[in-house]
Amino acid sequence: MTGPRGQAGRRAAGGQGGPDPSRAQLRPVGEHEYDPADDMVIRPFLLTGGRTRPVQEGLRVETLVHARPRSATAVLRFEHQQIVQLCREPTSLAEISAALRVPFGVARVLVSDLVADGSVVVTEREELSIQLIERIRDRVRAL
Amino acid sequence: MSALYDRTTSTTVAPVSVKIVISGGFGVGKTTFVGSISEIEPLLTEADMTDESVGVDNRDPVPGKVTTTVALDFGRISLDETLRLYLFGTPGQDRYAFLWDDLVEGALGAVVLLDTQRIEDCFPAIDYFEEHRVPFLVAVNHFQDTRQFELAEVREALGVDDLVPLVPCDARRRDSVKGVLVALTEEVLARRLAEQAAVF
User: What global pTM score does this model have?
Assistant: First the structure.
């Protein structure tokens, strides 16, 4: 049962635990009011030539990126080179972002460039099958 | 398993990555939770902690540890040679709302960490997961010197469905965090099996 008191309290309260959907609707993507603090997010996109959308769709924070063995890093720009070196072992986009100290959105654009030119491959998202979920549960339990 | 993955790049099987989202109010212990079980120090990306938030989130019992989830922090657990679990803490502030969809999309499920002294802080997270139909559970994090609420009281205050699991948790203890993650995978499985049963 859903307690009416609790439900009302939940709807009425603010809190900082997450985005407020009603506010999100009022501010469509790309139409943010200017906030000086946003500069720290925008500036890194100089690395991507201002591009914020990756050419490759479906890259998530947990997507694993793996460099092809003989990727010619010499011809790559510095950040691309760093990514290829990092991804000698499969590395998640989040880890790449942290290692390069760039926002996730920037890392995603850079990785998508490397996917496009064939320097790296990414593991396709895995279907969350019941077998996979059971495997996760059993492995976590065994930790 | 993957059309995109070129098997000639490696002699080993391509690893699979899965993520679980750790959410809740600001300073509730998300970073502690992730750090208790991650094999790497929780990494931070997207933005550094601002000066204003120092002190606000300084409730972490680990001495000298002031990292927090202003933006996006995460940990990693290698479950076996080909299966990696990532834990992502959600950003605790409205200004990072645009990150939520990226973080949550494709997640196995979510843990909503709750501080009994500030129950309302986790309402936006619960609303988000309910709205996006993400399987989640609520983990009641007990800080030292905090009155131990009865779980039933918490449930009433939360106004969540009886079906949503509510579990006690100590984010500082690895075995406790492990128990929460197992409970979440059980919840995801139960939901999946119920969906299957509804189809047939």
Answer: 0.76
